[in-house]
Design brief:
Blueprint: E1 2-4, E2 11-14, H1 19-24, H2 30-51, H3 53-60, E3 65-67, E4 74-76, E5 86-88, H4 90-117, H5 121-124, H6 127-144, E6 152-153, E7 156-157, H7 162-175, H8 183-186, H9 190-197, H10 212-215, H11 223-242, H12 246-259, H13 264-273, H14 290-302, E8 308-310, H15 313-321, E9 329-331, E10 337-344, H16 351-362, E11 367-374, E12 378-380, H17 395-402, E13 407-408, E14 411-412, E15 419-424, E16 439-443, E17 459-462
């Protein structure tokens, strides 16, 4: 529900799932809505170009971005339909200005990341953990956005000030005769804040009206939707980092340093993602194997964004308004990338490998996936459908189809593949594709890894085929 912060108890006024009702609720003046939308777009553009790749990907996954006075500030909600609408109060955004809007939007995106990494219901029900999340999120926002303080509205800061909370914490522990941590140590990790606040005799409580999530932490917070949205955003950020985006890499490393190892669930999330490659680490558990990390890295290079110079209209208009000269930006990709996954039905590839790859591919934005099964012939299929085989194995049949020399059912493959992933035991006559650098071979245990030492060499790795 949305909440009316002007009434005691925060009376529910609009169902967050009713998007038309949200837009109609006490509508703001059209010019206010338009200015708020401009500020929101400018903030999101800055995220994508410089300040937060994670937040940029999260908002890219919010197809509905609704100006509404049904929320006092802003909120990204996950109401269970598989989407995460962004709700924002246009009057609030206009009063905040661009810098304030960026802070609020970063805060909301980080809330989703926090809920994804710290999903333990017992933590979520602890008011002190809620306060700790506000402290941690706002500390990161101040650092990442280069601010010295919270946005100010009507002469008062908007949000929980981490420095103020630390001062209260230090005074409380000193009164108890205990040694408090300095600020930097206090905010070192998300869980450090929580554990240190538990040492207080009189911990503070956040003002509920400051953040929509504090009015009702469970409102619009479907965990499955949050997990799908955030995991996909983190994966795309990881791919950007492996393509050499310095901002993406640094942001992920900072996020990992704050959360990895602070809870079993958070460590599992990072392990499943395989993000430890950014640190050069091996997997600490068998949940993510080297071949999975390797594949993410290789796919990042094969699906590299094209580079083209474009004139960013919205950012250009903003720069012009500020008196700056127009500029061109490097942007990509020029088209949707085409990925072919070919599954050797004679290769004894375990179901979990196909399921994992299906989920991985499904979370990569800007990719069109084509799934093939093959033995002596090629048979397109959809993930989840039963695949058939039993004849001889021919890699050449796949190459002939993907490279446009043959057709299936009279229909040729008319796309240009950016990458071809072959899941096979490797036992079939060797081939040299027209573009070997686009081919990725996953070989089952005990299979023939000939592509690894073929001339020319192709990307090749053995997969773990044990049960999960």
């Amino acid at each position: 529900m949305a909440y009316d912060a002007t009434t005691a108890g925060h009376r529910p006024v609009v169902d967050l799932a009713d998007r038309r009702a949200l837009e109609r609720w006490r509508p703001a003046e059209p010019e206010v809505v338009e200015e708020a939308r401009r500020l929101k777009e400018a903030a999101l553009l800055d995220f994508g170009l410089t300040e937060s790749v994670v937040a940029s990907w999260i908002y890219a996954k919010c197809p509905q971005q609704i100006p509404t006075t049904a929320v006092a500030t802003a909120a990204v909600v996950a109401s269970g339909d598989g989407t995460c609408p962004l709700l924002y109060n246009p009057e609030f955004f206009v009063r905040l200005g661009l810098a304030g809007v960026k802070f609020v939007l970063f805060h909301e995106a980080r809330h989703l990341v926090h809920r994804h990494l710290f999903a333990d219901p017992e933590l979520r029900e602890d008011p002190l953990f809620t306060l700790a999340a506000e402290v941690s999120i706002n500390h990161v926002a101040l650092v990442r956005l280069g601010r010295t303080g919270l946005p100010v509205l009507d002469g008062a800061p908007t949000g929980v000030d981490p420095h103020e909370v630390h001062r209260d914490y230090a005074a409380d522990l000193t009164d108890q005769g205990l040694e408090p941590l300095g600020y930097d140590d206090f905010v070192e990790t998300d869980m450090t804040v929580f554990n240190e606040l538990k040492r207080m005799k009189h911990p503070p409580t956040p003002p509920v009206a400051v953040c929509a999530h504090l009015a009702d932490p469970g409102a619009g917070a479907d965990q499955e939707t949050i997990d799908e949205t955030v995991s996909s955003a983190l994966l795309n950020t990881l791919l950007a980092a492996r393509r050499g985006h310095p901002g993406a890499e640094q942001e992920l490393l900072d996020l990992m340093d704050r959360t990895d190892g602070t809870s079993e669930h958070a460590s599992k999330v990072w392990g499943r993602l395989g993000a430890g490659t950014l640190r050069g680490e091996t997997a600490r558990t068998g949940k993510v194997d080297w071949w999975q990390r390797w594949l993410v890295d290789v796919l990042a290079t094969k699906l590299r964004e094209g580079e083209r110079l474009v004139y960013p209209k919205k950012r250009g208009a903003l720069l012009a308004a500020l008196g700056h000269d127009p500029m061109l930006s490097r942007r990509g990709a020029e088209r949707e990338k085409v990925l072919v996954i070919a599954y050797d039905t004679s290769g004894s590839m375990p179901d979990w490998v196909v399921e994992w790859l299906t989920k991985l591919v499904g979370e990569i934005d800007g990719v069109s996936a084509h799934w093939l099964s093959f033995d002596g012939v090629v048979m397109p299929f959809r993930p989840g459908e039963r695949v058939y085989g039993g004849g001889g194995t021919s890699f050449q049949a796949v190459a002939d189809y993907v490279e446009g020399r043959t057709a299936v059912g009279g229909v040729p493959f008319e796309e240009t593949a950016d990458a071809v992933v072959m899941l096979t035991d490797g036992y079939a006559p060797h081939i040299t594709p027209a573009e070997p650098d686009k081919w990725i071979w996953l070989i089952t245990e005990g299979g023939d890894d000939w592509p690894d030492h073929h001339t020319p060499q192709m990307a090749c790795h053995r997969v773990t085929t044990g049960d999960r």
